Amino acid sequence: MATERHDPATGRLTTGHEWNGIEELETPIPRVVFFFLAVTTLFAIVYWILMPAWPVGVTYTKGLLGIDQRAVVTKQVEDAATARAAWTGRVTEASLADIAADPELMHHVRETGRTLFIDNCAACHGVRGTGGPGFPNLAAKAWLWGGDPDTIEETIRIGINGTSPDTRVSEMMAFGRGGILETDQVRAVAAYVRSLSNLPMGEADKTRIPAGKEIFAENCVACHGEDARGSTDAGAPNLTDAAWIYGSDAQTVFTTIYSGRQGHMPSWEGRLSPVDIKMLALYVGTLGAENP
Amino acid sequence: MVTGLTVSERHMALFVLGALALAGLAMAVGGRGDPLAVHGYIVLAFSLGLGFVVLSALFAPEPPESRLSEYYDDPTRVGIILSLAWAVAGMFVGVWVAALLAWPELTFVDSAWASFGRLRPVHTSGVIFGFGGNALIATSFHVLQRTSRARLPDQFSPWFVLIGYNLFCLIAASGYLIGVTQSKEYAEPEWYADIWLVIVWVAYFVLYIRTLQRRKEPHIYVANWYYMAFILVVAVLHIVNNLAVPVTFGHAKSYSLFSGVQDAMTQWWYGHNAVAFFLTSGFLGMMYYYLPKRAGRPIFSYRLSIISFWGITFMYMWAGAHHLHYTALPQWVQTLGMTFSLVLLVPSWASAGNALATLNGAWHKVRDDATLRFMMVAAVFYGLSTFEGSFMAIRAVNSLSHYTDWTVGHVHAGALGWVAMITFGSLYALVPWMWKTERMYSPRLIELHFWLALAGTVVYVFAMWNSGIIQGLMWRTYNDSGTLAYSFIDSLVAMHPYYIARAFGGLLFLTGAVVCCVNVAMTIRMARHARKAEAGGDVPLYGQAGAAQAGE
């Protein structure tokens, strides 16, 4: 029983159906809908003709423009590499010292090294290379393995306790847990080590210093040296400076001696290109110099 | 409510719950030492708990025959409440994960469940399936009966659909927290939950068809076409994308039947059509009923609603590939995804236009009535986000927007602006009808909710647009050395203020949802008081239908 009704608000007829009070108007589809339907469909058809579009059996229509996303991206990557080659070629060829002396090359190194460093190294060493508990501060120039660019390059390449067969290997032994020293002895040597950097300490610790000095001479000098200035051959830190990887408070120094430490730095060879490693080595050398 | 079931339906319910309890027990025993067992216990507790509810009313007398001359709205009422409960829970987790992104150190509990990766799907499933799904089921039962002038064919199956669906949501959300996922976005639940949802969903479709068969109207109203498309296509998508082989029947883990780029394509065919048929089609069904009803206006154009329906249904099926631009997916598939996405804009805007033009002659109501304004703004956001979607499907645009927060902003323009707004508008219209009150408890609270929701959406979407475009530009900026100008962390630093803004926008939206819950709870209380005052509870539920249902 369809009964069309005149809708005064629009002047249109209803379809005559009614559902729970809802009616519908007989409004024809506005022309603009057909217009845009035609425009978008036409665009689609033109696009299909020009670009890879429809599957045909085991292949597909390649499109008149012959565009292939794989070829496009390969070309873009090649073009970008060619454009960069103007200076990356020179970075590859030149020695680190020569690059460091060339302001133009160093401009590229700084610009690219920063992004490389933050994307790859900052997770441990921090955005500005200042490190954090367990991760050396690179801006402090307290080098474990040596700070000249060639050594830094080597450290990045092979890592420390890393996966490369040539990796640098270093370990602080667990003197307390390993049963080499008694707890009291650990406490004494910790006091002595802290006294080397004139760190503030209580009276009890001060009285331990002489005993600690003796224990140090018997157990620690092999790596850290008689003057406790460390050794870049063993990757042993200088204990007389202000740089502390794990922390300089009494508890942390005690823990370091008692339980030992074995830091890891990944071997970046194979993950980063030789040019990237070279730039990073130079960039790491500039840390601390910028924004003094 | 159990007394509303016939005695044989109560037996049926007990039988199904018993079978479910046995299934739960089997999962708990067979899955010892696996997360499957946890889910077994949840299923067991769930079905036993409900079993006691049914048992408590098992020997109550048969419901009166007069019920058959009324619509069956109990499941709709419960569905509304469940929907709002999921809304608050899901949006709360949303604000939580948004805060985690802005302040990662907020992970105050050092356990796996509190990590971003596990909480995020609780948010997405909570709002999409918990809030959206329950709202769709609740409103579809209401709309279906009213526009067919037919009562649901029985009283058991709507409960089976509603409660079964919520069991699925519960399994899904709890699974994410204990680490059960098949790592497919919006299809995370594992094989046993998927099988259960298929059973529930088929029951839903059968229920829908059976009711339509009983209709007293010569024609099927357009809202029902949209609801049916939602039910049917979601079943197809769900089944295909979740085809998987469990490691054993005693393990939660399964392996997808697809791998590599086929897996990616199947997933995004599913993913995009979940947007199309869950978040669009179903909610268009909602809009086509509640908007004209509330506005008191005829639909602007019957023909427009029909071509929009078929346009959307046909075109969306192709669009999924635009999620995989510039990937291993062959370029010809990307071309089809992009071009069909562009044509799709026309039926999408036709739907939005049809909704807005329906308001011609009722704009003064839009001004005065926040409920109708919710629906109007929903239609506007539907138009905006479908335009944005088609725009982002263009390969060149996608090369900037892909993997950035722009996508997140786009999704939320649709989810907050369209899906949630149309749902809240519809619920504000529906709740007084369902609880037989003249109006919601407080129109001013609706007004407050409207502005909270709108402000929250706008803040959220603008924050993510800015963040996403900045992100995209930073990722592709080269310096004069020809290398990348910004590190990834640089882009994170740039995004931080927008992440704070996003969390704030989300908080506004969540606050609005809480206001809605208060308003609905007070309306229900108001209805109870009114009924008690009137007749000491001695009048049949639908006794005053003539008066209170006048608006319906």
UniProtKB/TrEMBL annotation, chain A:
One of its GO terms (molecular function) is heme binding. One of its GO terms (biological process) is proton transmembrane transport. It is found in: Cell inner membrane. Its main location: membrane. Keywords: Cell inner membrane, Cell membrane, Electron transport, Heme, Hydrogen ion transport, Ion transport, Iron, Membrane, Metal-binding, Oxidoreductase, Repeat, Respiratory chain, Transmembrane, Transmembrane helix, Transport. Pathway: Energy metabolism; oxidative phosphorylation. Residues 108-197, 207-288 form the Cytochrome c domain. Heme c 2 binds at residues 172, 220, 223-224. It comes from the Bacteria. SUPFAM superfamilies: Cytochrome c. One of its GO terms (cellular component) is plasma membrane. Its cofactor is heme c. Binds 2 heme C groups per subunit. Heme c 1 binds at residues 121, 124-125, 265. The chain crosses the membrane at residues 32-50. C-type cytochrome. Part of the cbb3-type cytochrome c oxidase complex. FixP subunit is required for transferring electrons from donor cytochrome c via its heme groups to FixO subunit. From there, electrons are shuttled to the catalytic binuclear center of FixN subunit where oxygen reduction takes place. The complex also functions as a proton pump. Belongs to the CcoP / FixP family. Component of the cbb3-type cytochrome c oxidase at least composed of FixN, FixO, FixQ and FixP. This is Cbb3-type cytochrome c oxidase subunit.
